[in-house]
Amino acid sequence: MKMRLAIYTTLLTMALLLMPINYKLTLAQTCASRCDPAPLHFTPGQYIRVKVVNRSYGSVKLEQLPELRQTTLKPGQKLQFDLRGDKLTEFSLMFWDDGGRYVKGVVSKPNFGTLVLEIRPNSRDYPGNRSLYIRNNGQVSVL
Questions:
Q1: Of 89, 104, 102, 101, nearest to 44 (Cα)?
Q2: How far is CA 69 from the centre of its chain?
Q3: Which of 1, 63, 72, 140 could form a disulfide with 94 if both were Cys (CB 3.0 to 4.6 A apart)?
Q4: What pLDDT score was predicted for residue 28?
Q5: Where in 26-138 does DSSP place strands (E)?
């Protein structure tokens, strides 16, 4: 009986020693190492300045909804929208590359009342984004 227990113990020990260990699963990480950035948000009723910058390689068409104003931005050009918070219900801005290339929208909030949308080139693997949306609760989305 003692011999059988010794053999089982030895086999179990060898199996545990030879088994590969995945260290990534055993290490704890903080949220800062893997979390997505917090969504951008403005206070409802606040004045917001939206700056759009075309950093892509071609001309980009912009269409503001619901006004249906259409504009073209050449590479490097900028456009600004001043949104009065007391009159703002929702703001939508659709954008696409005039030549059919893929673009993505990258938003940032450099200060309290400014939202910057940079339109950048994107790869064919991911079609990218087509619109910026500011809800009446102040939430910002790029879809």
A1: 89
A2: 26
A3: 63
A4: 57
A5: 48-54, 60-65, 69-73, 78-83, 91-97, 103-111, 114-121, 131-134
